[in-house]
Design goal:
The protein has 208 residues and is an alpha/beta fold. The chain has a single domain, classed as Rossmann fold (3-Layer(aba) Sandwich). Helix content is 56%, strand content 12%. It has eight helices and five strands. A five-stranded parallel β-sheet has the order 2-3-1-4-5, with helices on both faces. Helix 3 packs parallel to helix 5, helix 4 runs antiparallel to helix 5 and helix 4 crosses helix 7. It is globular and about 45 Å long. The two termini are 22 Å apart. Bound molecules: thymidine-5'-phosphate (TMP). Thymidine-5'-phosphate binds next to helix 4.
Amino acid sequence: MKNYEFITLEGIEGVGKSTAIQVVKRILEEKGRDVVITREPGGTAIGEKVRDILLSTQNNEMSPVSELFLLLAARAQHLAEVVSPALASGKCVVCDRFFDATFAYQGAGRGLDISIIKSATDLISPFFIPTLTLLLDAPVEVGFQRIKNRGHTDRFEEQNRVFFERIRASYLNRARLEPKRFCVIDASQSLGEVSNSIELILQDKFDS
Ligand code: TMP
């Protein structure tokens, strides 16, 4: 499976992934690429239902292991229904979160054993490794401020700062360990500066 153009965006809440993903789409389309924008959890009818369960604040009693397997169920469906066919037909897939989020949120955040996450992740997606992962990084405080301005919070966003500090540290650590795949973008910059950073990265990766 050639998955040369599988791009993922990652980061803690409130770092501006939704805006950044549109910037990535625009740049790639300007380069003549056929782009599929998708997200996890979600991206399929089944996955979006699972997403609702995962994000609902009515499900605060959900155990971390249940959370992990719901996320993975949504991912398995997403890979089969969206990612795999799109890559096979030569499209460029840009996905809002993928397996790095599982290591960061369920591993560092929830405290699940990393080896369990790795085995479960390998079981459903051994061949799907992003070509490029853009990590939008900003201090937790910056993300929290932006979430507050949105007016409502989901089950993850209701977690405390310490939870997100662990997630941020985990993301940065993963980026440090895989410098070829990851590009870290300072998301505390202005929107224009973030767009410029993304543009520079994509020019470098896709024109060479
Ligand atoms: P989003 O709102 O940024 O799209 O993401 C929904 C939430 O799902 C976000 O709080 C992070 C969480 N999540 C995990 O905890 N583990 C995962 O593997 C994925 C993909 C998302």
